[in-house]
Amino acid sequence: MATDYVSRPRSHRVPAVLRAPFEPRAWREFGYVLLSLPISIVVFVCAIFTVSLGAGLLVTFLGIPVLAAGLALARGFGAMERARARLLLGLDVPSPRPLRGAKPSLMGWVGALLKSGVSWRHLLYGLLHMPWAIFAFAVSLMFWTYGLAALTYPLCHWAFNSSNGGGIQFYGDGEHQVYLDSPPEIALVSAIGLLVVIVCPWVTRALVSVDRLMVAGLLGPSALDSRVTELESDRGVVVDTAAADLRRIERDLHDGAQARLVALAMDLGLAKEKLAEDPDAAARMVDEAHGEVKVALQELRDLARGIHPAVLTDRGLDAALSAVASRCTVPVGVEVDLPSRPAPAIEGIAYFTVSELLQNVSKHARATRASIDVWRTEDRLMLQVSDDGRGGASVGGGSGLAGLAERLDAVDGVLVVHSPAGGPTTITAELPWRG
Fold first, then answer.
1. pTM of the predicted model, to two decimals?
2. I need a surface site. Which of 63, 104, 207, 349 has the fewest CB within 10 A?
3. Percentage of the chain with pLDDT > 90?
4. Over the stretch 294-335, which tens digit does the pLDDT of each residue have?
5. What pLDDT sits at residue 209?
């Protein structure tokens, strides 16, 4: 996706309209327009030459590698154009994906180039950009030239006086000539030049906006490539999250229920040995073992609830979130308004999202009350957790909310945090419905 980077805005006393001709951005954009003409002519000639030659040679085998060479040349020019747009327009267009399926051979490289839609879009850019570059060059140069010439007319009026004795000729025929040589006329010409110079940066900016669209649309990655890259990143997040969950389950089993069960087996073994010689001591040990069994069962229930609670499967989000709210350290109001149940995977993500947010309320918010609201909007499942705590929550700085946002993004979800210092905090999660 193409992005424009701009510096942090600063306060100015001079309006932007009057300030524009003196800002570096105006001259960078004008320089971009001036450079576009010779560059676009070279690119256009190369594109036409290689396409024409390749098409003419298609009756032989040579036409195919010539076309591939033209596409490779177009990709090279495209890289140069992206760098030029980044330097002069502040437009950061990501490079497209490398050639896919290119075998380590000449014919494999040729085939990959010919099958690449990115390469053909680069070639199309070379063909379309030249007509626009000529138009933009002519219009922009005309505005800047006439504007600066008129603005500086009082300074160069003497040159016209020495050449024709009357300054700039405004009108003339065989009998009459009108020259702009009186002080009011000179001042009027300069004022008009000032207005034109003020307008020039905005005219140039409007012209380069078309260049921005062409560079971003034809020289950047396609929507499909961007989506593939996004899905690959999301898959990595999902894999990492699943691995972390497995490690957490293993750690909880090893340090909790498994350790208790080992201790329980040892206690029951000792009780068995004492059963004949000291029945009372054996009974006490069995009673203690019974207590350990209850604790181990509770830990296993908590672990199972952390994997996927049975109440969520049996009764849905309303009952499951009510159970989560009852375990929170502050009173929590639950409002669930859903016409039906979403897909089980989305339902599970929604449950664990709310669970983690309520844990944050219990540990960090210092709140006195909280609320959970769940509803459906078109094809999106909306979750909102609010509290009256101290605020200051954010998704930055490696916080738990950052990891939660990544997990939601992996399923095309969104996490929005509004938590000013002093509170209250409102965190909204948006998930696809997928019912």
1. 0.54
2. 104
3. 15
4. 666 666 666 555 556 677 777 888 888 888 888 888 888 888
5. 93
Does residue 229 have a pLDDT over 60? no
Radius of gyration of the chain (CA): 36
In whole angstroms, give the CA distance from residue 150 to residue 152: 5
Q: What is the pLDDT of residue 8?
A: 47
Residue ranges of domains in the chain, CATH in brackets: 12-221 (no CATH), 226-307 (1.20.5), 314-432 (3.30.565.10)
Q: HSE on the CB side for 337, CA within 13 Å? A: 7
**Amino acid identity at 179:** Y
